[in-house]
Write a structure and sequence with these properties.
1 helix; mainly beta; single chain; extended; 3 strands; three-stranded mixed beta sheet; 4% helix
């Protein structure tokens, strides 16, 4: 049995296109929700780097109408890669025979 890949759709009202970009929206303190948009409803790359307010109207006809949270200063936090099972490779390690 083949399971089809999950294709996320644009979250703009009435849009049935596949998602091309995503950004985050604040729902509660300490919690965010992923927002998806097709290329027609996407916000800019710079805007997508920020966490947006729960009231942000993007993706929608009026685009982003909030003042996104500032990007924290300093070096981004780098998570420690998890231990993977034998046969799996971490992003920094190419599988044997890879070109």
């Amino acid at each position: 049995m083949t399971i089809p890949a999950l294709v996320l759709g644009c979250t703009a009202t009435g849009c049935t296109n596949s998602a091309a970009v995503q950004w985050k929206r604040r729902t509660d303190p300490g919690h965010t929700l992923a927002v998806f948009a097709c290329d027609s409803h996407a916000i800019t790359l710079d805007a997508a780097a920020h966490v947006h307010a729960t009231t942000c109207t993007a993706p929608g006809p009026s685009g982003c109408t909030c003042t996104p949270e500032p990007i924290p200063s300093g070096t981004p936090v780098q998570a420690t890669p998890p231990n993977l099972p034998p046969g799996w490779a971490t992003p920094a390690t190419a599988p044997t025979g890879a070109a």
